[in-house]
Design goal:
Order of helices and strands: EHEHHEHEHHEHEHEEEEHEEHEHEHH
Distance between the termini: 38 Å
CATH topology of the largest domain: Rossmann fold
Number of helices: 13
Number of strands: 14
Radius of gyration: 19 Å
Strand order of the largest sheet: 3-2-4-5-7-6-12
Low-confidence stretches: none
Shape: globular
Helix content: 40-55%
Oligomer: single chain
Largest sheet: 7 strands, mixed
CATH superfamily of the largest domain: Thiamin diphosphate (ThDP)-binding fold, Pyr/PP domains
Number of domains: 2
Length: 311
C-alpha cells in the first residue's frame, strides 16, 4: 500500500530536524500552529517560536525584522492569507530588500476541501511569482517537501513554499534529489510531455501509465520550482515531443501553465494544453471530489494528452 503523508506534516518534521542543526532558525505562526504543523517545532524549541496571533501582516513584518538581525525566519499560515492578506508587507519589507525570509504556506488549492472557496488558494503561485527576488517552490510529496525546506535554509533570500492539507502518496525515495530551479524528468516519452507540479505529479504519472497502454508515449516532468523555472527541460521537451500538457492545482492564470507558456512562446512555440482551475473560485466539498469536478484528474490529463498527439 502506498504511504500517504501530507506535505504540511513533512514540513513540521523538517523544521524540527533543522532546528537542532541551525540555531538561527526561528519559526513564526499566525495562531494556526496545529494546522500548519509548526507546533512540532514549537514543542522542541519553544524559545525560538513566536505566535503573532491572527495578524498575518505582523507575521511577515516580524519575520523581516528577525532576518535583518541574522535569523532565518519561517513564517507560516494558510496560503490564502500568506499570499493575499500579507502581500504588501511581503513585497516591500521582504522582497524589495531581499531579506532572508521563508514563507511556508499550507492549505493551498482545492484539496483543502470543506473549508471552501474563501480558504482555497488558487492564485497564490501567481501572486508570489510576480514578486521580484521571490523563489516559488511547490513540492510533490513528503520527501521533496523536506528537501525543499533544507534547500530554502541554504538559499539566502525570500522563498515561498506551497504546502497542502491532505495526505498524498509518497512518490520518491531517499535517492531523489531536489535542486532549486531544476525540473526532474520522472518518465521518458516521445509523443507528448506532461509537466506537473505539487500533488498533480502523482496524477500525471498515473495518466502516463494509462496512455502507455494505448500506445501513447508520455514524458512526465516534475516542476517543483515555479520560479525560477527550468527553461532548459521545457525547451528540450518541446523539441522532442509533439506538445505539452501542464497540470496544476491552481488557476491556469499566472501559475505553472502560464510560466511554461512564457518559456515556449519566447523559445520554442509548440502545441500546449493547460489543466487547472479556469478563472473560478472553488467551493466546499470533499477535496478529491472537487479535484474531479474541476477536471484536475487522471481522466482529463489523458484527454488533453490525446488532443496534443492528434494534432
Amino acid at each position: 500500500m502506498t504511504n500517504m503523508i501530507a506535505t504540511r506534516d513533512a514540513y513540521g518534521e523538517a523544521l524540527k530536524e533543522l532546528g537542532g542543526i541551525n540555531k538561527d532558525i526561528v519559526v513564526l505562526d499566525a495562531d494556526l500552529s496545529g494546522s500548519t504543523k509548526t507546533g512540532v517545532f514549537k514543542k522542541a524549541y519553544p524559545e525560538r517560536f513566536i505566535n503573532v496571533g491572527i495578524a498575518e501582516q505582523n507575521l511577515v513584518a516580524t519575520a523581516a525584522g528577525l532576518a535583518t538581525a541574522g535569523k532565518i525566519p519561517f513564517a507560516s499560515t494558510f496560503a490564502v492569507f500568506a499570499s493575499g492578506r500579507a502581500f504588501e508587507i511581503t513585497r516591500n519589507s521582504v522582497c524589495y530588500p531581499k531579506l532572508n525570509v521563508k514563507i511556508a504556506a499550507t492549505h493551498a488549492g482545492l484539496s483543502v476541501g470543506e473549508d471552501g472557496a474563501t480558504h482555497q488558494a488558487l492564485e497564490d503561485i501567481s501572486i508570489m511569482r510576480s514578486l521580484p527576488n521571490m523563489i516559488v517552490l511547490n513540492p510533490a510529496d513528503a520527501v521533496e517537501t523536506k528537501q525543499c525546506i533544507y534547500k530554502a535554509v541554504e538559499y539566502d533570500g525570500p522563498v515561498y513554499i506551497r504546502l497542502g492539507r491532505s495526505k498524498v502518496p509518497v512518490l520518491f525515495d531517499n535517492n531523489y534529489r531536489f535542486e532549486i530551479g531544476k525540473g526532474v524528468e520522472l518518465k521518458e516519452g516521445k509523443d507528448v510531455t506532461i509537466i506537473a507540479t505539487g500533488i498533480m505529479v502523482e496524477k500525471a504519472l498515473t495518466a502516463a501509465e494509462e496512455l502507455d497502454k494505448e500506445g501513447i508515449s508520455a514524458r512526465v516532468i516534475n516542476i517543483s520550482t515555479i520560479k525560477p523555472i527550468d527553461k532548459d527541460i521545457i525547451i528540450k521537451a518541446a523539441n522532442e515531443t509533439k506538445g505539452i500538457v501542464t497540470v496544476e492545482e491552481h488557476s491556469i492564470i499566472g501559475g505553472l501553465g502560464s510560466a511554461v507558456a512564457e518559456v515556449l512562446v519566447e523559445n520554442k512555440p509548440t502545441y500546449m494544453e493547460r489543466i487547472g482551475t479556469e478563472d473560478t473560485f472553488g467551493e466546499s466539498g470533499d477535496g478529491n471530489l472537487l479535484l474531479d469536478k474541476y477536471g484536475l484528474n487522471v481522466e482529463n490529463i489523458i484527454v488533453k494528452s490525446k488532443k496534443i498527439v492528434s494534432k
